[in-house]
């Protein structure tokens, strides 16, 4: 062995020995448990964490999906209960800036919502998607020749046959999920996100007619669903939402976009599969026939068909029609990928790195503060500019808490977390981390020379 290699190896061993020296800085338990613990990976302050951490989270520590800590603090049906102040500030700032039209709240007695006299649902002031008024920023059509796939109302127990079918056929779709359904079906949600790597989007918290809600209720329906998805996907912020019943207008659309950065998605064909089995609803043969007609028909514009993972019949209709998509020359694509961009606001997809952001606050209009200035976080004043990012509860056991805010600096500084975790970007390494890094560098040089 050349003398220079021997010297480098001796130096590496010395560095490793120094890094392993006893000290009192450990804050984790060395006792070997009898079974695998819930947190099986290294703590974030462990020197190996920076070397082997997963690359698909924002660096925050979130409660395990399905755990009591994960589900704590979310509303039942009253979505205005415990609303984080940052969301209210963001809404007020958008209203003050004239970005949210002052349209009257619609009313409904079970049918399509209606507006007071003088407000035309098809006019530019209201432009109700329920009445098929198209805002150019909404997504209604897929590109020519593309079958834009998505499903509403999950996750549910009836979702699993669909998920297994998607897995078998190696395709990804967009799931517009109801927030409260995620709470009740954590395993199905985890399968969709982690196993299928499908795209997760927002379908509100309780599935209401959105135009019949106050501004504060709209905030709650969208915000709580976004936050639950954010805290269950390693910090990803959904980019798309679909209004239940397709019920949106210029006011609701503006709140979704200006406060939460959400793009509204509708559809250009409706199976009405949700009504199968109801006395005045459609039938499975009719749904099958409609799907066949559209898939074998013209390819301009491309298809965005309203389908649901709601019952065995709604799922079964899609499964039966699926072979026709390829047979008729369609390109199968998830709706969230139709624009060719990222699936989430802060991540390309379910596995790519996540830029730390949070839910529903305005970034400061002035230049971003340095990453080291922990007190200079995003402003939520009325003079702020909307960006669709904001304050959230990452790492907290209670999602209502807003005490831990993201620092949206230009360098991408990570959040501070309750476990004293090392910052993902820019924070100094501890002395034992530095020693280990040095030793590994020396070893690499030694082997390169050997």
Automatic annotation (TrEMBL):
Membrane topology: Lipid-anchor; GPI-anchor
GO molecular function: chitin deacetylase activity
GO BP annotations, alphabetical order: cell wall organization; chitin catabolic process; fungal-type cell wall biogenesis; polysaccharide catabolic process
Domain NodB homology per the UniProt entry, residue ranges: 145-333
Enzyme class: hydrolase
EC number: 3.5.1.41
GO cellular component terms attached to this protein's record: plasma membrane; side of membrane
Span list, region Disordered: 363-421
SUPFAM superfamilies according to UniProt: Glycoside hydrolase/deacetylase
InterPro entries reported for this sequence: Glyco_hydro/deAcase_b/a-brl, NODB_dom, Polysacc_deacetylase_ArnD
Biased composition (Low complexity): 363-405
Subcellular location: Cell membrane
Pfam families: Polysacc_deac_1
Signal peptide residues on this chain, from the entry's feature table: 1-20
Record's keyword terms, sorted: Carbohydrate metabolism, Cell membrane, Cell wall biogenesis/degradation, Chitin degradation, Cobalt, Glycoprotein, GPI-anchor, Lipoprotein, Membrane, Polysaccharide degradation, Signal
Swiss-Prot/TrEMBL cofactor(s): Co(2+)
Catalytic activity: [(1->4)-N-acetyl-beta-D-glucosaminyl](n) + n H2O = chitosan + n acetate
Annotated PANTHER family: CHITIN DEACETYLASE 3 (PTHR10587:SF135), GLYCOSYL TRANSFERASE-RELATED (PTHR10587)
Protein name: chitin deacetylase
Organism of provenance: Polyporus arcularius HHB13444
